[in-house]
C-alpha cells in the first residue's frame, strides 16, 4: 500500500478520533459546542496526522496530544484549540457524569 493511500485511510480515523475526543470531553462540566468541535476537526486534521498518528483514539488522547504539541501545530489549529476549555480532555468524574 502506498504512503499516500495509507495516509488517506488514516485521515478519516484521525478525524473520527478528534470528534470522539471532543464528544467525550462534552461529558465534562465544560461542554464543547458542535461549531467548536467542527472547527478543531477541520483546523487540526493535518496536525493530528503529523503529530499524533500513533496516539490511540478515544478518551481525549488526540486532543491532549495536539495540546502537548501546541508549539508545533499550525496557527489555525492553535486558534481552534484555544476555544476548547482547558479541562475538556479530562475524563468525566463521578460527579460530572451523575454516578457515584
Polypeptide structure, described:
- By secondary structure, this protein is an all-alpha fold.
- 61% of the residues lie in helices and 0% in strands.
- The chain is built from five helices and no strands.
- Helix 1 (3-25) crosses helix 2 (34-51) and helix 2 crosses helix 4 (75-82).
Task: Give a summary of the structure in a few sentences.
It contains five helices and no strands.
Blueprint (SSEs and pairs):
Elements: H1 3-25, H2 34-51, H3 61-68, H4 75-82, H5 94-97
In which range does the helix fraction lie? 55-70%
- N-end to C-end Cα span: 48 Å
User: Roughly what fraction of the amino acids lie in strands?
Assistant: under 5%
Mean pLDDT: 76
Question: Unreliable runs, pLDDT <50, ≥5 residues?
Answer: 25-29
For the record, the count of structural domains works out to 1
SSE succession: HHHHH
Which oligomeric state applies?
single chain
Q: What is the helix tally?
A: 5
Q: What is the 3D form?
A: globular
Descriptive tags:
mainly alpha, single chain, 100 residues
Amino acid at each position: 500500500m502506498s504512503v499516500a493511500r495509507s495516509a488517506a485511510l488514516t485521515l478519516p480515523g484521525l478525524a473520527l478520533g478528534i470528534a470522539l475526543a471532543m464528544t467525550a470531553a462534552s461529558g465534562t462540566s465544560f461542554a464543547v459546542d458542535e461549531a467548536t468541535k467542527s472547527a478543531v476537526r477541520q483546523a487540526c486534521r493535518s496536525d493530528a496526522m503529523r503529530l499524533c498518528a500513533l496516539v490511540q483514539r478515544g478518551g481525549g488522547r488526540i486532543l491532549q496530544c495536539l495540546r502537548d504539541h501546541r508549539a508545533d501545530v499550525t496557527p489555525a489549529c492553535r486558534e481552534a484549540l484555544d476555544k476548547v476549555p482547558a479541562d475538556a480532555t479530562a475524563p468525566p468524574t463521578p460527579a460530572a457524569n451523575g454516578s457515584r
